[in-house]
Amino acid sequence: MAEFVVNPWEVRGNVDYEKLIKQFGTQHIDDKLLQRIKKHTGELHHFLRRKIFFSHRDMNWILDEYEKGNKFFLYTGRAPSGPVHVGHLVPWLFTKWLQDKFDVELWFQFPDEEKTLVHEDLTLEDTAKWTKENAYDVIALGFDPKKTHFLIDTLHAGLMYKEAMKVAKRITFSTAKAVFGFQGETNIGLIFYTAMQSVPAFLPSVLKKKNIPCLIPYAIDQDPHFRVARDVLPKIGYYKPAALHCVFLPGLGGILEQGKMSSSEEQTAIFTTDSPKTVEQKIVKYTFSGGRDTVAEHRKLGGNPDVDVSYQWLRFFEEDDKKLKQVHDDYTSGKLLTGELKQLLIRKLNDFLKDHQKKREKAKDQFEKFLYESKE
Amino acid sequence: MAEFVVNPWEVRGNVDYEKLIKQFGTQHIDDKLLQRIKKHTGELHHFLRRKIFFSHRDMNWILDEYEKGNKFFLYTGRAPSGPVHVGHLVPWLFTKWLQDKFDVELWFQFPDEEKTLVHEDLTLEDTAKWTKENAYDVIALGFDPKKTHFLIDTLHAGLMYKEAMKVAKRITFSTAKAVFGFQGETNIGLIFYTAMQSVPAFLPSVLKKKNIPCLIPYAIDQDPHFRVARDVLPKIGYYKPAALHCVFLPGLGGILEQGKMSSSEEQTAIFTTDSPKTVEQKIVKYTFSGGRDTVAEHRKLGGNPDVDVSYQWLRFFEEDDKKLKQVHDDYTSGKLLTGELKQLLIRKLNDFLKDHQKKREKAKDQFEKFLYESKE
Predict the structure, then answer these.
(1) Are β-strands B148-152 and B106-110 bridged in parallel, bridged antiparallel, or unpaired?
(2) DSSP annotation string for A145-173
(3) Of A129, A101, A113, A121, whose CA–CA distance to A40 is shortest?
(4) H or E element: which one contains A228?
(5) Integer Cα distance of B122 and B190 in angstroms
(6) Cβ-defined contacts of A58-61 (< 8 Å, 24+)
(7) Residues B348, B349, B353, CA angle at the centre, nearest 5°?
(8) Are B218 and B26 in contact (CB under 8 A)?
């Protein structure tokens, strides 16, 4: 078994999600829970049907409260440091679905200081630019501006800093070191930062002066932050935030190579602003194939969809279960060649991106509408 | 030699200021520097004449720049956590004198989060109250509201947090640990806090978009913060702040007992709101005396002003050198008894406090005028 690393600042290797569930102490999203969710949503998002969202904390409690008439709010976010790739969209697409199905508010955090604390050369001026660029992608997904509030750490610090201090007071360096693996050379900004990431999980409760349940959909690498937040928030009078965890969309280079897609490896990432031509070239050239060495061999033995990145990506982007199954069966039997499978993915992605890019253009004058403005 | 401890959160024992100069790497305020200051101020404040301000960093550079027409600004502060005692006033009285003599701006920080991170039971609600109460004492000293700007960390975080992050990025945990003595149980808020204390040393430069020299008068226990700030600020494009350091006003209980007066030891501290009766009772009852056991013995051998707290306090509060010398000589010769010396101090303090309390009352509707309002 290959070694793997999963923490908020690094994902590497062939991630064993079962091991993470044990290690992080989370729960499987099992069929019973899926049925309970379906009772409210009418249908199940394909991310749930396919266990792309695979793990949770306290989701049953969220539904208990919801059924009592006590609505939760959603919280997710994006640490701006570069362009958005399609892997980033996964938790946001799901969050949008949750917002629609449960008719709830979303607080979306842009911690624009975080990555400047990790990357020597990244400045707050850089991340200010990326905050806007990234926000356009979020807006393009169709969130309701009346129910969606953007929090930008440096912009909303007047509101957030005070609350972060209440949390920071209750996290020792020993805890932070154990959870995040901090060392002597770690800077004191990064050591403190987790307190800021906890704030949106209770800020709506502060603002509305009542305790409101919080549900956070996120890729599992962010779990250390919320594990700490769950420890501290009850000590300052708020609920533990509940969580829904998704797996990572692998980079085009393959599941074994890269834990998740990375913006810094441009060739094996598809960005939301990539042209149809670029998408085609990247997929044709860089996508790891589960096919055989020759066509003859492939026809005879069939391909392996479990390691084929085009197929794995279709699990994320092809919503139709029947179509996906057909692809799976045809690829396994050898009927579908790798080149053909890549073309299916190229079409699927380019259709999605054509629409997304149009909406992203329109989003550019919507930014202010989503910014939370303190009424104080 | 008794052990002593001097750091931002603890001052204990018989402080050896010569040792601190060596340990912290600061410079003596020598006669040459005093004469240079006098060239600009016309006279020397009795805190300078008596080496109550005894140490500095880069004061010659501040005067170089000033003589070139490049004015500095002043920065000092108060971490609100309780009532102001007369020891707190020492650096502020001197700062007021500097503001008048050099006609410069003052940025006064109220880090209202700091002490909540040190004291388990102290909340941000408590310090919000003390911020106002303490600010009245600052205003009562007569600072010019047109040239004096209050910064309250949680209130001005919208302005300060972003700048603090630039500093925090450049301080490793190892450095913070070495300077402040942090342990595993130290909370991550306190570890980060020093970055916030550095911000007023360059915020005026940020706001005015030009590099302005900064001079910070403070009691020497705050030096670790500014040592770190001096290290980091040039790395982000700002001058190292210069410093003027004062000794501590001892508690009534004696120089050997208490490193500095402490608000938490109410009997041996004189608060700015104490009544004349309370001042008299505390001084009569608790002030450590350098006198002899009997009047006869005192008349014969004389008292010791070096350990007599009443005399030591008069060094801070009796501005007239001749009067002070008379007291010194009379006490040493045995002409002045301890009870009489105490009465001199009681009159001096009560005269000062009567005036201060009147001004403090008037200050209560001046608070807003001193609050820095972002023009952004």
Answers:
(1) parallel
(2) TTTEEEEETTTSHHHHHHHHHHHHTT-BH
(3) A101
(4) helix A223-232
(5) 14
(6) A58/A240, A58/A242, A58/A243, A59/A27, A59/A29, A59/A33, A59/A215, A59/A242, A59/A243, A59/A244, A60/A33, A60/A36, A61/A213, A61/A242
(7) 125
(8) no
Q: What angle do CA A7, A12, A14 make, to 5 degrees?
A: 115
Instruction: For residue B367, give the nearest of B110, B159, B115 by alpha carbon.
Output: B110
Determine contact, residues A201/A239, Cβ cutoff 8 Å. no
Residue in B with minimal Cα distance to A164: B189
* Distance (Å, whole) CA B44 – CA B53: 11
The residue among A40, A73, A343 whose CA lies nearest residue A206 is: A73
Nearest to B149, CA basis, from B375, B373, B372, B374: B372
Residues of B in contact with A153 (CB under 8 A): 161
Q: Could you tell me whether strands A214-219 and A27-28 are parallel, antiparallel, or unpaired per DSSP bridges?
A: unpaired
Q: What SS3 class is residue B150?
A: strand
A116 touches chain B (CB under 8 A): yes
3-state secondary structure B157-194: HHHHHHHHHHHHCCCEHHHHHHHHCCCCCCEHHHHHHH
Provide the residue-wise pLDDT of chain B in tens; the chain has 376 residues.
457 888 888 888 888 999 999 999 999 999 999 999 999 999 999 999 999 999 999 999 999 999 999 999 999 999 999 999 999 999 999 999 999 999 999 999 999 999 999 999 999 999 999 999 999 999 999 999 999 999 999 999 999 999 999 999 999 999 999 999 999 999 999 999 999 999 999 999 999 999 999 999 999 999 999 999 999 999 999 999 999 999 999 999 887 665 677 777 778 899 999 999 999 999 999 999 999 999 999 999 999 999 999 999 999 999 999 999 999 999 999 999 999 999 999 999 999 999 999 999 999 999 999 999 854 3
Question: Hey, what are B113's tokens?
Answer: 């989060």
Name residues 227-266 of chain A within 8 A of B (Cβ).
Answer: none
**Buried residues in A146-178 as b, exposed as e (16+ CB within 10 A):** eebbbbbbbbbbbbbbbbbbbbbbbbbbebbbe
Task: Give the chain A residue whose CA is nearest to the CA of B112.
Answer: A162
Q: Are B26 and B244 in contact (CB under 8 A)?
A: no
Name the one residue in this structure whose structure tokens are 């004349």.
B276
Neighbours of B256 (CB within 10 A): 12
Closest chain A CA to residue B182: A173
The residues with which A5 forms a beta bridge, in sequence order, are A12
Taking the whole predicted model, whether its pTM rises above 0.90 is answered as yes
Beta carbons of B274 and B283 less than 8 angstroms apart? no
Distance from CA of B179 to the nearest CA of A (A): 13
**Is A346 in contact with A338 (CB distance < 8 Å)?**
no
Q: Does A270 touch chain B (CB under 8 A)?
A: no
Question: Tokens 């999600």 identify what position?
Answer: A17
Q: Which residues sit opposite A271 in a β-bridge? A: A85
Identify all chain A residues contacting B182, using CB atoms and an 8 Å cutoff.
Answer: 173
Sort residue B70 into left (φ over 0), alpha (ψ -120 to 50) or beta.
Answer: beta
Closest CA–CA distance from residue A333 to any residue of chain B (Å): 55
B115 touches chain A (CB under 8 A): no
Q: Give CA–CA dist B82/B137, Å, rounded.
A: 12
